[in-house]
Design brief:
Elements lengths: L3 H5 L8 E2 L2 E2 L1 E2 L10 H13 L10 H20 L8 E4 L2 H16 L5 E5 L8 H10 L2 E5 L9 H8 L5 E5 L11 H10 L3 E5 L11 H4 L3 E5 L10 E5 L1 H6 L10 E4 L4 E3 L13 H17 L1 H19 L5 E4 L8 E6 L4 H9 L3 E2 L1 E3 L4 H7 L4 E5 L6 H17 L6
Parallel strand pairs: 3-15, 5-6, 5-7, 7-8, 8-9
Antiparallel strand pairs: 1-2, 4-10, 9-10, 11-12, 13-14, 14-17, 16-17
Helix pairs in contact: 2-10, 3-10, 4-5, 11-14
Length: 409
Amino acid sequence: MLDAARLRADFPLLERRENGRRLVYLDNAATTQKPEAVLRAIADYYRTTNANVHRGAYSLAIRATEAYEAARAKIAGFVNAWAPEGVVFTRGTTESINLVAGSYGRAHVGRGDTVVVTAMDHHSNVVPWQILCQEHGATLRMVEITEDGRVDLSDFGTALERRPKLVAFPYVSNALGTVNPAAQLAKLAHAAGAVVVVDGAQSTPHLKVDVQALDCDFYALSGHKMLGPMGSGALVAKPELLDAMPPYHGGGEMISRVFDDHSTYNKIPHKFEAGTPNVEAAVGLAAAIDYLETIGLDRIAEHERALAQAAIEQLTQIEGVTVYGPRGHRAGVVSFTYGDIHPHDIATILDQDGVCIRAGHHCAQPLMRRLNVAATARASFYLYNEPADVTALTGSLVKAGALFGYVPA
């Protein structure tokens, strides 16, 4: 496993104490903490380089543009994008998927067509397609999951029989920790003639991602879940698809020439980056990628799997605790319930011991209905977590159970 104690020292916020206790941060699927290297990169950008990009002939603006475009190239290399111009900066996975729905979807999905998603999808990979289908008279088909929390490949095959225009799914489930066979799903969808959109919010921070090996058409990622700043992220796409798509936002930078009654548009990716971009976020995300690459994504994935497995083993020894999702080959996300204690109560009680977990439907209400629960508690691990954090989680949970009359097994 990683030397998490040493890595933890790189994160200033983790030095805080909550309610007089050592901070145990286990809400990494929602957002991750930021290392000093990222904080420094953002501050240094503003101290030394700040200027509006792509618009200035003076040296400061040129350096700002170079930093911005270097961040784009950094992301492209990190996920093995087809080309840097296939990387569009966005505010994160949600905006990236909305961009695909609002541009590619509106141009290609019409009345009678089908869009396929899964029952484990985050709302950001469901609602944009619902809106698109409602506006265009198309049908949204939701693929079911198996009892152990995986995509039901039989139902997936049935959904593909309708020759959908577009298939969207998560590489990793934010609520179950399921690692989907993304390359296999993409191959099956392509064979049915569909364009493939992968929600990479939970995979990019934790797995070595190669979009060309996945052979998806669009891949969405969020920087804040991989040590980068809030409001950072990207849509990674096959350049030929982006080139043929209409603009998503109108304004400065995305144009070539503006006439009284019409405009022509900039080349990709700038066609999709209207207005002044969040340059600090791009610079910070590039610094986060440098940090992650120094450690190694394979090592991070192995570390998280070990922590998740330890958490599952300890949680299932507590009478009344139910853990959801697959037991094998999963990411560092563990969702659970404890008898009839509401997950919000669990999270509130654990907070008194400095243990931070998420409680709720995790923006996955269709999944919660299939699990027959309104909400779950969720612990999610990252590179700076260590076995002591698992012990703190389960120890605090036993104390919470005692308050509600549950006797430790």
